């Protein structure tokens, strides 16, 4: 326990001790620029991706997953992440994690960091990587071309290498409820993989309902299983909204002591290896749902994240992609604003 505690302190883990003493502060990890955009069919210019990250930072988001150092043959939309990191505005104290699947990905991050002038007072291009695996071999094969066991063996030296150069490491476990290839998932497997990632050195493990099929009852059961081996303060929830249960799943996770939630502005996204899955729960929907609740979302605009700005960003990026925002709160708030403007214009 002690080495783990020390490592988490070093890595600046999002903090509180146990569910019983959990604070009411909710941390948002905005994954729109990565999970949101990775599934797009068309090519998205680097300038648009960089502007998206910049806008999210200005809206008060404290952690923004900025892209991936993965094979462009596997996920073409994430090509150019190094350029995104150099072009976007980087704000002090804001984390910009990037997804890394292997040593080659970490080498890309290391090379980029080496180009940062040593006398620069600007925040680093990034201070965090995210590694990822899954709770089934079938999904791991589709996503990483290997098994769970091999992925963990590969990721161990990557994690060590990242920690050695002072980077924080976050872990993902995909398909924690259902797998698009093998169906219902064994939550014991989720617990084992999550524990392996924590033991490896991850300061936090994000549990992904990749397919977006999970119901609140299933999320609760899965979390209670994982919590047998992993302290809830080290867990995050990552819920896709395919069946419309994502906000309910967020509330369930919070009631089970989870205090970090991955969200995607405008409800962008899907997973290239989970056919039919829709985007992550929309950031705007989570911010809206948590208003006037016992929870307070952490952020850098008046101590929180600016919901109106997020609605505008959700619409802006959706229009860049040639469609409308799918955030329910984003749509309703914009419609209301337009209606009010019309009424005012008639006066
Ligand atoms: C891991 C590999 C590379 C294995 O793929 P592989 O084909 O077994 O690997 P390889 O070593 O044979 O490499 C294939 C080619 O990719 C290159 N390559 C190899 N590595 C890199 C790298 N890091 N960056 C750039 N290029 C790379 C490598 O050099 C080679 O190029 P070639 O010789 O053919 O020209 C591949 O499977 C991969 O990139 N997978 C990433 C898939 C991915 O990004 N999925 C989406 C993210 S996960 C997700 O969305 C779920 C999550 C996190 O959101 C949570 C949830 O919702 O559940």
In short:
Helix content is 42%, strand content 14%. It is α/β, with parallel strands linked by helices and 347 residues long. A hairpin with a 3-residue loop joins strand 7 and strand 8.
Structure description:
This protein is about 40% helix and about 15% strand. The protein has about 350 residues and is an alpha/beta fold. The chain has a single domain, classed as TIM Barrel (Alpha-Beta Barrel). The strands form two sheets. Strands 1, 2, 3, 4, 5, 6, 9, 10, 11 and 12 form a ten-stranded parallel sheet that branches. A two-stranded antiparallel ribbon has the order 7-8. Helix 3 packs across helix 4 (about 80-85), helix 3 runs antiparallel to helix 12 (about 305-320) and helix 8 packs across helix 9. It is globular, with a radius of gyration of 19 Å. Residues about 1-5 and about 15-20 have low confidence and may be disordered. 3-hydroxy-3-methylglutaryl-coenzyme A binds next to helix 5, helix 6 and strand 6.
Number of strands: 12
- CATH superfamily, please? Aldolase class I
Q: How far apart are the first and last residues' alpha carbons, in Å? A: 66 Å
Query: Which overall shape is indicated by the principal axes computed on the Cα atoms?
Result: globular
Which percent bin holds the helix content?
Answer: 40-55%
Main β-sheet, in a few words?
Answer: 10 strands, parallel
Count, helices: 13
CATH topology: TIM Barrel
Structural class by SSE content: alpha/beta
Low-pLDDT stretches are: 1-6, 15-21
> What is the CATH architecture annotation?
Alpha-Beta Barrel
Evaluate the radius of gyration: 19 Å
- What order do the helices and strands follow? HEHHEEHEHEHHEEEHEHEHEHEHH
Q: Could you tell me the mean pLDDT?
A: 93
Q: How many structural domains? A: 1
